[in-house]
Amino acid sequence: MDQSSGDRVTVNHDRYPDEYLRGILNEVRTIAVVGASNKDVRPSYFVMKYLQGKGYRMIPVNPGLAGQEILGETVYASLTDVPVPIDMVDIFRNSAAAAGIVDEALALPVRPKAVWMQFNVRNDDAARKAEAAGIRVVMNRCPKVEWARLNGELVWQGFDSRVISSKRRKL
Q1: What is the 3 state secondary structure string of 38-101?
Q2: Whole-prediction pTM value?
């Protein structure tokens, strides 16, 4: 977080303090995943399954799969079709689509507490609009990865151990 302007706090979306991310993840319980997939090899499916295992209610949103089930939850065509209040919207769509999703979230009778845009999803205009309405925003991050990092689970998976690396080993 950077500066406070009145009651609003300006967030530096290039670098989030751990307290900011932890605050969101500790406060939310119901997460709508826009762009959810029923394919277990897709990142959205894996994130939903992981966070569901951590006690979050994960609600899939995908118009092409509406009425079906993913991980025991009914899939809805849009955020406005979800019959329960949503604490956080997790966006698994491209950056351009984020603006419309934020507009839809702002139109809900009970606004979400946070909007989270996945890796490679960033829309600064949508973020400003959500923040102006009092909604916290995270961009270009994954809540699954941040939850694991903040709770020490990345070490379990080999990260921070120098065992897993993107660099080629020298022979």
Answers
A1: CCCCCHHHHHHHHHHHCCCEEEEECHHHCCCEECCEECECCHHHCCCCCCEEEECCCHHHHHHH
A2: 0.87
